Amino acid sequence: MVQTKNNTLSQNALSHLWHNTNFGVWMLLLVLFCAFVYVLRSVLLPFVLGIVLGYLFDPLVYKLTKLKISRTWATILVFVLALLLIVPVFVWFVGKLNDELNLFISAMPAYMAALSKKIMPLLDRLQAYFPSLSAENIKETLSQNVSQTFQFSGKLLQSLFKNSMAIVNVLSLVLITPVVAFYMMRDWDVFTKKAKDLLPKKSKKDLLKIFHQIDTALSGFIRGQVSVCIILGAYYAIGLRLVGLELGLLIGFIAGIISFIPYVGSITGFVLSIILACSQFGDMTHIIAVVCVFLIGQFIEGNFLTPKLVGDKVGLHPVWVMFALLSGGALLGFLGLMIAVPVAAVIGVLIRTGLQKYQKSNLYLS
Fold it and tell me: How far is CA 255 from CA 101, 156, 180, 300, in A?
């Protein structure tokens, strides 16, 4: 009898979810949207990047409209200022990064030879405790395979650096992305108003609340985390160069650009910096200086940058972030990596909202 009553309550709750909230319609639209993105993944990158840039600069355009400037002129002003600031910095940075990659490839054999000389005494001591280990085989592996691996990695990075624009279609990025970004900035209010008008009237209030939470999460990532990555990348690059590390700019760029993955950016940059510092320098002073650069960077990120620029807006667990990146990259390639965390943030909001609804439903209270 109790089992029958529970089954009836469950069926009623599911029926209410399906009919009164149009759950089936929303799920169908979600499936169609995912299929659309997957089928057109090869051409969506410039449009997605344009939408992201429009979303990123929309608050600045909005502030200018408060000064009695028309939306079109405010968009033009922000667009021109962004081009004047971003393009020269981008060209300079690309040139410097290319120089660092060339240095990485040419200097890596020397670095690995110096590192091997410092590791060999440790291997000899290790063999004293484990006689079965062949020191000669280990030395040969380090001198040949490791050096070749690093050379291959450097050439791969340089190849990706030079050919990535061809991979993602440079013409579409250069020609389409700025146009999409301009119209998104100019017509953002129009798009949002039309989207609100299309929402179902009965559930409009709840949907607007969900969209507000999604906007908060996305702004926390796109505007906040991107700022953190740029600031950290600049800090690590400048700090490592001041220490004297020859590849400081490259390592700082790597550490900064992947800082949106919790702990991965700082750990990767730290390990690479220590390895290169051990190879390049023969004293502990420079190694301690490198350690200090990353300790200070982590202190600044944890106590100032992330709390002020991101806060708890995104609310994503590090494991969920890494899963989203791996899944996005496997499904959609570069486009998937670009949208993985924002999509994960949206899914997180929807799951939290769904759990709140579930805890108020008859299915949970029965």
Answer: 15, 18, 30, 14
Q: Among candidates 49, 38, 36, which has minimal Cα distance to 172? A: 49
Residues 50 and 145 in one domain: yes
* CB 226, CB 310: distance < 8 Å: no
Question: Among 330, 334, 259, 335, which residue's Cα sits nearest to residue 294?
Answer: 259
Q: Does 246 lie in the same domain as 187?
A: no
295-354 pLDDT tens trace: 999 888 888 887 777 765 556 677 777 788 788 878 877 778 778 878 887 888 888 888
Range with lowest mean pLDDT among 143-152, 204-213, 308-317: 143-152
Return d(Cα 40, Cα 173) in angstroms, integer.
16
Name, in order, each residue with C-beta under 8 angstroms of 269's C-beta and a sequence gap of 6 or more: 236, 251, 252, 254, 255, 256, 294
Q: What CA–CA distance (Å, rounded) separates 149 from 22?
A: 55
* Residue numbers of the domain that contains 288: 205-359
CA atoms of 363 and 359, how far apart (whole Å): 8
Cα(147)–Cα(134) distance, integer angstroms: 19
Among 198, 227, 256, the domain boundary falls at: 198
